[in-house]
Amino acid sequence: MSILLLTRPQPPELFSEALRALLPGETLWESADAADAAAVEAIIAWQLKPGVLLRYPNLRLICATAAGVEKITAMPDLRDNVMVMRVVDPLVNTGLAQYVLLMALRHMRSLQLFEAQQRAHDWTRHRPPDPYSLTAGILGMGEVGRTVAAALQIAGFNVRGWSRTPKDVPGIAMSDGADGLRSCLAQSNYLVCALPLTPQTRGLLNRDTLAMLPRGAYVINVARGGHVVEPDLVALLDSGHLGGAALDVQDTEPLPPASPLWDHPAITITPHIAAQASVATVSAQFAANWQRLRAGRSLVNVIDGTLGY
Amino acid sequence: MSILLLTRPQPPELFSEALRALLPGETLWESADAADAAAVEAIIAWQLKPGVLLRYPNLRLICATAAGVEKITAMPDLRDNVMVMRVVDPLVNTGLAQYVLLMALRHMRSLQLFEAQQRAHDWTRHRPPDPYSLTAGILGMGEVGRTVAAALQIAGFNVRGWSRTPKDVPGIAMSDGADGLRSCLAQSNYLVCALPLTPQTRGLLNRDTLAMLPRGAYVINVARGGHVVEPDLVALLDSGHLGGAALDVQDTEPLPPASPLWDHPAITITPHIAAQASVATVSAQFAANWQRLRAGRSLVNVIDGTLGY
After folding, report:
1. B206: phi > 0 → left, psi -120 to 50 → alpha, else beta; which?
2. Mean pLDDT in chain B?
3. Higher model confidence: residue A249 or residue A278?
4. Are A238 and A210 in contact (CB under 8 A)?
C-alpha cells in the first residue's frame, strides 16, 4: 500500500524526502505514471484533474497542500469513503497577514505617490491618515481571518469581522449573515476576503456588495479568485467608487496574459504568493493523520463535505 | 503673558484654534513678527533658528512638536531655566510602526519584483521566506522602538532590541553597549533605527557598524538623518554587502534635488512622513503642562538636558 505525491508545481521529491524520514517503510510515488494505481491509499495534492480519482479504487485519504480545498472537495468523483484533510499551518496564516498588511499599508500610506515623488526628486510632505481613523473589515474569521485581524489591529486599523454564521471573536466587533455583511461592508475602508470558497461564498463580492463599501475603499483578496466577480470589481474601480484592489488570487490561475486585470492602474496582481505551507509542515501533518488511520483512530483537520471547509 | 506658535510647516492657525478651547484667555501669537517678545512665556515649535531664543527673556517652556528634540535641546542659546517638553503620542508610535512594517514587508515579500512581473503580465510564483526565518534588530527601545518591536513580531519577524544602556523589555531579546551592538547587528536582516539623536548616537551607523550586518541586510531609518553616515551607507549598498535602505529622514532636509540618494536603485527616500503628532494631541499635552506650570507643579515629558531625550 502506498502514497502518491501530486504536489506539482511544488517538487514531489521534497515531500518524499521528508516523508521517508517520518514514515519509513511506506512506498512513495512521485508521479501518477510511476504509481501502481491499485496500491494507492493516500494522495498528497495541490489540485486534482477531473476524473483522476477513478483510477484509485483503494484510496482512503487525500491531503490538500493548499489552505483552499474547494478544488478537491468539489470533485464529483470523490467517493464518500475518501477523507480529505487540510494542513493547518500557523506560519501560513502569518504569511497571509504579511501580505494583507503590506497591501493595506502601501495604499494607506500612499507608497506609490512617494515613489513617484522620489523619481521626480520631490520632497513634498503629505500628512498620513491618523492611525485608527480607518477600518478594515475581514470576511471570514477562521484561523486566517483571526491572524489577519490581530496584525491589522496592531498596525493601526480599526478591525471588524464578518462570518456567514454567528461567531464570537474576543476583541473584534463581529457581525454575521446578510444584514451583518451589509453593515460590515458599509464601514470597511479596507476589505479583506479570507473566506473558504463554497457554493455560498462564490461570487459574494459582486456589483451589489462591493457598492456597499465606502467610496475609495480598497479590496484585498487572499482567499480564492471565485469570491470576486472580476468584471464587477473593474466596473466599480472605473466608476471611481472603489480606490483599488490587490488580488493575490484570480478566477483563472495562472492569470492569462491577455487578462484586462494586468494593466488596470488600480489593481495589483500577484501570482498566488501570499502564503504557502512548508513541505515540512505538510509532511508532518499528513504523516500524523496517516498513522492515526493505520491505527484505526479518528483523524484531525478533516474537511466537512457538507460545509466544504 | 502669552504663547508663541512657531509650528510651520504645520499651520499655526490649527494650533491656535485648538489651544483657544483648551486655554481660554491666554494670548496666542501665530508668528514671531506679530508677538510681543517680552511677553512670550511659551513657544510651541517644530524647530528653531539659531539665536531666536535670545529674543524672549521671559521664556519658561518650549514644546517640541516632533518626537526628535535634538534641534531644540542642542541650541547654545537655550537657558537652564527654560524647560523643553516633548509630546508623547501613542499614535505617532503606531504611525512609525506602520512605516517600518511597510518597508520591511515590501522588501521581504519582493513587492518590487511582483510589480515588475505585473507590468510584463508574468504570473511566475516565487516562494516567500518562511515567517520567523528572518530577524529585525531595533536600535533604541524607547516608546517608539517597543511599538515597532510588537508590530514586527506579529508580522512574522524575530525581533531583537538594542539600547545604549541596559534595558529590560518583556518578550524581546535585548542587548546593550558596544559589544551588544555588534551582536545585534550581526543577526539583523532588517535594521531599524529608532534612537534619539545625541552626541553619542550621531553617525552610529557608519562603514564599520553597517558592515557588521549580515549580507543583504535592509536598513530602515525612522529616527534622524544624522544617525546614518550617508556616504558609508551608499558604499556598502554599492559593494553589494547591504540589500537596500528606506530613509524617511536624511542628514539635510528637505533632501536637496541634487542629492545622489534620490536615484540610488536600492534606496527609498520619503519626505519625513513616517509619523507626525496630531494637532489635537500636541495642543492637549502642551496645555496640560502649561496649567501645571501656572499652578507651580512639576511638568511631565520634560527633556533631560544631559541625556538629550
Report:
1. beta
2. 94
3. A249
4. no
CB atoms within 10 A of CB B105: 25
Determine whether the interchain pair A151/B155 forms a contact, defined as Cβ–Cβ distance below 8 Å: yes
Contacts of A270 in chain B (CB under 8 A): 114, 118
Beta pairing partners, A84: A62
Domain B2-89+277-294 indexed as CATH 3.40.50.720: yes
Element (H, E) at A267: strand A267-269
The chain A residue lying nearest B270, using CA atoms, is A114
pLDDT above 90 for A146: yes
**CATH code linked to domain A90-269:** 3.40.50.720
Across the interface, do B106 and A106 touch by the CB < 8 Å criterion?
yes
pLDDT digits (tens, 9 = 90+) for B5-44: 999 888 999 999 999 999 999 999 999 999 999 999 999 9
- Please indicate whether, in this complex, the C-beta atoms of B106 and A109 are within 8 angstroms of each other: no
Instruction: Give per-residue pLDDT as tens, A41-91.
Output: 999 998 888 888 899 999 999 999 876 677 788 788 888 889 999 998 889
- Residues of chain A in contact with residue B98, where contact means CB-CB under 8 angstroms, are 105, 108-109, 128, 131, 155-156
C-alpha B1/C-alpha B26 separation (Å) is 7
> For residues A271 and B122, what is the distance between their CA atoms, to the nearest angstrom?
8
Q: Where does the pLDDT of residue B304 fall: very low under 50, low under 70, confident under 90, or very high at 90 and above?
A: confident
Residue found by looking up cell 505538510 in the block: A282
What is the distance between the alpha carbons of residues A60 and A68, in angstroms, rounded to a whole number? 20
Mean pLDDT within A251-270: 97
| Contact state of B156 with A268 under an 8 Å Cβ cutoff | no
Within 10 angstroms of residue B256's Cβ, the number of other Cβ atoms is 12
Pairing of strands A158-163, A61-64: unpaired
Domain with CATH 3.40.50.720 in chain B: 2-89+277-294, 90-269
CA angle at A206 for the pair A204 and A207, rounded to the nearest 5°: 150
Q: Which of A127, A272, A292, A294 is catalytic?
A: A272
Site from B92, B125, B222 to mutate, A interface, most A CB atoms within 10 angstroms: B125
The minimum CA-CA distance between B155 and chain A, rounded to whole Å, is: 6
Please report the pLDDT score of residue B67 as a whole number. Answer: 67
Can you tell me the ipTM of this complex?
0.89
pLDDT surpasses 70 at B111: yes
Average model confidence (pLDDT) across chain A: 94
The answer to whether B253 touches B228, Cβ cutoff 8 Å, is no
Given an 8 Å threshold on Cβ–Cβ distance, is B102 in contact with A109?
yes
CA dihedral A29, A32, A34, A38 (to 10 degrees): 80
Task: Note the pTM of the prediction, 2 decimals.
Answer: 0.90
Helical axes B143-154 vs B90-108, angle rounded to 10°:
40
Task: Decide: B42 and B26 in contact? Cβ < 8 Å.
Answer: no
Spatial neighbors of A14 by CB under 8 A, at least 6 apart, are A7, A279
Predicted confidence (pLDDT) per residue in B148-164, tens digit: 999 999 999 999 999 99
Residue of A nearest to B276 (CA): A127
In A, which residues are within 8 Å of B109 by CB distance? 98-99, 102, 273
For A64, the 3-state DSSP assignment is strand
